[in-house]
Amino acid sequence: MFKKVTTEQYPEVPKVTKPRYHGRHVLNRHPDGLEKCVGCELCAWACPADAIYVEGGTNTDEQRFSPGERYGAVYQINYLRCIFCGLCIEACPTRSLTMSNDFELADDNRGDLIYTKEQLMAPLLPGMEQPPHPMRLGDDEKDYYLRVPVEETPRG
Q1: In the chain, what are the domain boundaries?
Q2: Dist CA 150 CA 139 (whole Å)
Q3: Spatial contact of 114 and 76, defined as CB atoms under 8 Å apart
Q4: Which of 10, 37, 76, 102 has the most crowded Cβ, counting Cβ within 10 A?
Q5: Is the bond leading into 126 cis (omega within 30 degrees of zero)?
Q6: In sequence order, which residues have a C-beta less than 8 Å from that of residue 150 and are 6 or more positions away?
Q7: In the CATH hierarchy, which fold is given to the domain comprising 25-146?
Q8: What's the average model confidence in pLDDT over 53-58?
Q9: In this predicted model, what pLDDT tens digit does every residue of 8-52 receive, in sequence order?
């Protein structure tokens, strides 16, 4: 209360956010690169600002984007409407949707503030493969979610 006021040079010295800060949304991936989003649309239903649009699609054996039978084919978040309340995060059953600490979302074009699935997806880490590809961690969905490794079959 009786401290000297200090000026922070914001663009030159980036602001450090708290660990639980609600920033830009991120769609997470499984360790092999498949998407965690199953296209259930619960995040869109939970959003009080109607800022999320999700269209579910069906996985096939040839085109697999997530380990389940469905995936989020279209995923958009309108940051012109989003109030960063985090209700979408709480509604997500697969923990696919989380919020990062990124807060610099300003733009001079309103259309650029509607983020698509490609902009929201977490980057591929080493060892991940770009979907669509078959499941790598187990024989069925239960093994996949429990992260049971596939046993190598001897080649001869």
Answers
A1: 25-146
A2: 7
A3: yes
A4: 37
A5: no
A6: 136, 137, 138, 139
A7: Alpha-Beta Plaits (3.30.70)
A8: 95
A9: 888 888 888 888 889 999 999 988 888 999 999 999 999 999 999
| Residue carrying the six token digits 């980057």 | 123
Residue 72 has pLDDT above 90, yes or no: yes
Cβ-contact 108, 76 below 8 angstroms: no
Which residue's structure tokens are 């790598």? 136
Nearest to 35 by CA among 133, 115, 114: 133
- Please answer whether residues 84 and 22 qualify as being in contact, where contact means their C-beta atoms are separated by less than 8 angstroms: yes
Which residue type is seen at 6?
A: T
Token pair, residue 28, equals: 């997470």
- Cα distance between residue 44 and residue 129, in whole Å: 28
Report the 3 state secondary structure along 29-45.
ECCCCCECCCCCCHHHH
- Position 154: which residue type? P
Helix (H) or strand (E) holding 73: strand 70-78
Whether this prediction's pTM lies above 0.85 is answered by no
Taking the C-alpha atoms of residue 124 and residue 9, their distance in angstroms, rounded to an integer, is 33
Which residues are CB-contacts of 22 (< 8 A; sequence separation ≥ 6)?
84, 85, 86, 99
